[in-house]
Amino acid sequence: xxxxxxxxxxxxxxxxxxxxxxxxxxxxxxxxxxxxxxxxxxxxxxxxxxxxxxxxxxxxxxxxxxxxxxxxxxxxxxxxxxxxxxxxxxxxxxxxxxxxxxxxxxxxxxxxxxxxxxxxxxxxxxxxxxxxxxxxxxxxxxxxxxxxxxxxxxxxxxxxxxxxxxxxxxxxxxxxxxxxxxxxxxxxxxxxxxxxxxxxxxxxxxxxxxxxxxxxxxxxxxxxxxxxxxxxxxxxxxxxxxxxxxxxxxxxxxxxxxxxxxxxxxxxxxxxxxxxxxxxxxx
Amino acid sequence: xxxxxxxxxxxxxxxxxxxxxxxxxxxxxxxxxxxxxxxxxxxxxxxxxxxxxxxxxxxxxxxxxxxxxxxxxxxxxxxxxxxxxxxxxxxxxxxxxxxxxxxxxxxxxxxxxxxxxxxxxxxxxxxxxxxxxxxxxxxxxxxxxxxxxxxxxxxxxxxxxxxxxxxxxxxxxxxxxxxxxxxxxxx
Lengths: 283, 187
Ligand code: FES
Ligand code: FES
Known about the structure:
The complex is a heterodimer of chains A (283) and B (187).
Chain A: E1 7-9, H1 14-24, E2 28-31, H2 37-42, E3 50-53, E4 63-66, E5 69-73, H3 78-83, H4 85-90, H5 92-99, H6 104-109, H7 112-118, H8 126-131, E6 135-140, E7 143-148, H9 149-152, E8 153-155, E9 158-159, E10 166-173, E11 179-187, E12 190-204, E13 207-216, E14 223-224, H10 226-232, H11 239-246, H12 263-282
Parallel strand pairs in A: 1-3, 2-3
Antiparallel strand pairs in A: 4-5, 5-10, 6-7, 6-10, 8-9, 11-12, 12-13, 13-14
Helix pairs in contact in A: 10-11, 11-12
Chain B: E1 3-8, E2 11-16, H1 23-30, E3 49-52, E4 55-58, E5 71-73, H2 86-93, H3 103-116, H4 122-128, H5 140-153, H6 173-184
Parallel strand pairs in B: 1-5
Antiparallel strand pairs in B: 1-2, 3-4, 3-5
The structure holds FE2/S2 (inorganic) cluster (2 copies).
């Protein structure tokens, strides 16, 4: 099928994009990489009057450093993120999770910010961003504001973004020297996570000094596994310690049941995959 | 209607398109480039894969207006003077297709894969083709074909192999469309 008719604008600044959205009220959709939006439009699951394409806004693209912070432009493609030396050096978890997104063609077009703003519970990038205490820089009619990742993901496919706001960039504190792994369980030829575990760990003097763990698809929004983090810190990085910590993986989760998995199976997966993610990160 | 200028297989095309026109529709219906096919509504199958600025994309998941000012290469640019591209020849030699519907996308994605990694092992070939579905072959011969093509292509893999040697000349698509539609046998 083909999309229903819509008006199209491709502004060249963030401010113009916000103005276009503000004028359109609830009748507009933001086009980032389009790898979720275009299938949705083709299947006529959405029928916006206006599509605002962020593809012509140079400011929103690219990776840079700002002191102790890594800044990833919302319109940076997955392909660029996973190959960026800066991301690999200071936020390896993001690079590793991005490598598992969909397939090469989708990673060429799909964007970091687009995935986050789409907020699919099965998407792979919200959990790492949450685990790493990132901040989202959001532009609206009255200027820019910063939203912590913990407040950005609100519900299924719902973020703190208003209909007249766009995500401009994501600021991630540098995790230089931390080990990381994204452990994902998915069906073949459909790369959406049934469950995913994002883990990054700082090992110092033979013990886990700090740990960050986030879960994909264990509820309407990504979940931070604080219990796992607490259980791990201070332990030596051993299989035994990982297993003991992983027991806490389901705390605070509200896994759903769907065609891919029942809730109790997801809970089982969360624990097993957490153990594997920690072991691989530290291995 | 928005006016776009796209370099398609070495020819500069300027056309008016509706905003909702998908790149694949533009290629097939407006330019007559029916070598690129549509296999699904959900961005899963990869049959519509073309290259945009040297990287593979699913042309059903890009709007034609998003291709404005960019360079698109389709499977139709690969053969030269009636000679198959080494990747096409390897598919032919290895019986890597049955119905052939997935083949244009498989070949374009396989070329992207080799541009990025000229000497992939079988595992890397399978991962590189994970966005392309084949309902006939069971993939074994496709993997074999890509492996063989990578050996044959070694030095010349990548975007350099894509162009058929035509000199890009500005021209509106309407001039060539009629002729190509006939050649393509469908619209
Ligand atoms: S037609 Fe199936 S992915 Fe494009
Ligand atoms: S040869 Fe028939 S789908 Fe691949």
